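hey can u run this one w/ LFPHGCPZ bound, need the structure tokens asap thx
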Amino acid sequence: MAAPVDISASLRTFRRLLLLCFGLISLLLGIAVATFFVHQARQTEQACATQLRLLGQLYARQLSFWRQQQIGAAELLSQDRRFVDLAGALLQRQEPGAAAALRERLQPLFRRSEIHALGLCDADGQLLLLLSDNPAWTAHFDPADARRSLALAQPLFSRITQDCPDSAGQSLPPVPPHMNLIVPLPAAAGGALVVFLDPLKVLIPLLHDWPVPSDSAEIILVRQLQDQILRLTPTRFGDNCAPLTKATPPPGELTLGRAMLDGRTGFIRALDYRLTPVFAQIEAVPGSPWLLAAKIDRQEALRPLRHSLWRTSLLALASLTGLGFILLLWWRQQQARYLADFHQAELRNRLLASRIDDLSRHANDIILLCDPQGAILDGNERALESYDLSLEELRQRSLLQLCDLEESEAALLWQQLSLQPAVRLDCLQRRKDGSNFPVEVSARWIEQEGQRLLQAIIRDISERKEAEERLHHQARHDALTGLPNRTQISEQLRHAILRAQRSHNQVALLFLDLDLFKNINDSLGHATGDALLRALARRMRSVLREKDNIGRFGGDEFLVLIEDIQELADIVLVANKLADTVAQPLTIEGRELCVTTSIGISIAPDDSTSAEQLIRFADTAMYQAKERGRNNFQFFTSDMNLRLQQRLELENDLRKALQQNQLLLHYQPQIDLRSGAIVGSEALVRWQHPQRGLLGPDLFIPLAEQTGLISDIGRWVLHEACLQNRLWQQQGFADLAVAVNLSARQFQNLQLVEEVLAVLRDTGLAAAALELELTESLLMSDVQTAVEQMQRLSQAGIRLAIDDFGTGYSSLNHLHRFPLDRLKVDRSFVQSIAQQDSTIARSIIVLAHELGLEVIAEGIETAPQRDFLLQHRCHFGQGYLFSPPVSAADFGALLRQAVFSPAE
Ligand SMILES: Nc1nc2c(ncn2[C@@H]2O[C@H](COP(=O)(O)O[C@H]3[C@@H](O)[C@H](n4cnc5c(=O)[nH]c(N)nc54)O[C@@H]3COP(=O)(O)O)[C@@H](O)[C@H]2O)c(=O)[nH]1
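ok here u go:
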């Protein structure tokens, strides 16, 4: 089982990451906003400073100009000689009418709209003349100002006053706001001209004229008086009378008054008279002791920025909230999906794990779980069953103890396992009782709950091994006899040759072929043939030494290997022993059978050291033995090799024979023994070989059958015979019939009937004029098929005869099933008549009559044979007595020659 996954830890980590991301985004946004605003604040302050500087400078110039104007107008009068004289007279109180004259002189100035009143004061500042309707003005004139002006001999402006108490702190009669200008008269006059200016006309509007509406901006006009900064004009807020320097700032803060006292000009950040933070520009009014301060509350100056800051902060906050909300939603969604996936996967894993657990518990393979040292920790049911151990007993063993391995093999396996993640090997496993069984081990390292374990899946391959061995055995053994087959015996021969070469010894190869086995097989059936082969194989094996090998080479052929031969007599001994044991009668299915064998012998290394060649030589020698009358053995000789080559050449030539029209037919007449008339012919094939002359069928028909060429040859023979017979019929021998031999292969062709009918159609011969000769063994090999094939031929009107009747193992039980027309008594039985043994010939004739068949005897060489046959009601015959097989031309001549002499 895999270790449980800490899902909450994973989620917590994921959430932390998400929060970290959000925090980072917020921080970055905050830094961006703050940086932006610090920058903006700086920009705003600079813009404000620029604006204040321009305004300050502008106002300073305008004030200077206004001052000059006022002073200029007053000085113009003070420089008027008459006026100065009159003023002197008045001041010195010498001329009583001077006051009236002065009033008149002052009228033009007094009419100026900016002037409340005009007066003259003496050197002590005593107001001696007042040109005004309101005598209260006198109280609003400070003699100290006059004295100061006269002492400095400079014009002097008082501060603007309205309802300020006097220097003694007494309230004064009310007058409009005013500013007193004191212009000293020439020394002769000894006094000064006093002008009560109305600041509301020009000065105050000028100072209040701020370019844009503002809640806090103002121009303050001041002048220094000793260590005080006095306000010359009313200020916008609060106490208009107190000096600017009166305000006491918090420690470390700069006030406007302090800055002016310190003589600072230009842009400053300070607290004003209300102790409110302001941006201010201090400018000196040129040509005067006046200073002006253009100022605006910092709060107002920075208000748009603050608003923008708020808006931006709100926007950022809203964005962050939105982002946070989206992240939260996404997080929830992810969390839900993750949890769903996790639980689903966990469920799947659990299901899978339980299924796997279940499967492995009841698996067909052995499953073992071992610790890293190979000690078994657990095993499934199959393991307990296979080793016949309880779980406790199993746990007391190690994986290597279960494997039936040599010490070195076990060490190697363990070394491989320590180097590789997985190892596969085939070995044996030991059961509790010490027996073992073959297995395929797949061992691999696995991680289970954090532990490194060794898992071994062990498959019992006993069945597979057995099947493999069976297959291997089957591939190398003959299924029928259990002897080594062609492959194995050939291989054994190769090894034997090598051994013989090494030990300078000889190996004899005996090639055995049962004589006439085909007849037994065909006539008694395959089952009998098989039983015979099995019995003979057992017999032959039993007469051989243990170290001699015998194998079935194919069909009825066997190979025997004899090693360590001392002399040829040993081989002769073995060959005779084999021939004798084969020749012993056998009882198969209640029937006694006798077979013989022909043996060919070749010897390595004398004849050859090639296994294939040695087999071929022994085969050739075996043919020689057959030719020598069967049931004997022949050693291979070099001239046999020559015959073998000739056989190969013949086969090669036969392939070309048909194309090159080298085949021809001879016809042997078939005679009505009573009349001596030719009633038909038997077509017998010949081969006009270009080098070897005219060859009889015995020399090439067996070869044609072995190579399959018989089908083409047979087709040609049939066509040629039918065509020829039709020609003779057309030449006047209308009832003439023709008999054609049919080979086994031709008969087994399922298209035979169609092919024969096609030939009849092509040649125009009537079916009744054709007789097909079949051998006994051909019919008996598969009776049912033969019956069916013959019925189809017979139904088509074709006549059927059994050739060489009596030589095979015809079952008389089956004979009546075949739709036959004729039995042909074999030549050997006809010849036996001459030897006073006519029993079989007579029996066949009787049998034919009883079955309602015609009977024909072949190989009639003598008149007594003919007479005997006729006497026993065999009405047809053929043989050298009448004519050997002859060419078509000669046969035509025979036909025309009329009849053979009938029987006596
Ligand atoms: N499938 C095919 N088999 C064929 C064909 N042609 C021939 N054969 C088979 O070859 C066998 C040998 O034939 P052949 O050498 O032609 O011998 C025939 C006669 O020459 C011989 N014969 C006839 N009369 C006598 C005689 O009085 N004495 C004597 N010693 N021999 C004689 O017998 C052969 C004819 O025998 P059979 O066919 O049994 O009537 C031959 O047996 C065929 O099986 C072919 O085209 N196809």
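The pocket of LFPHGCPZ is lined by residues 668, 682, 684-685, 696-698, 701, 717, 741, 743, 803-804, 827, 858-861, 878-880, 885 (CB under 6 Å). anyway lmk if its weird
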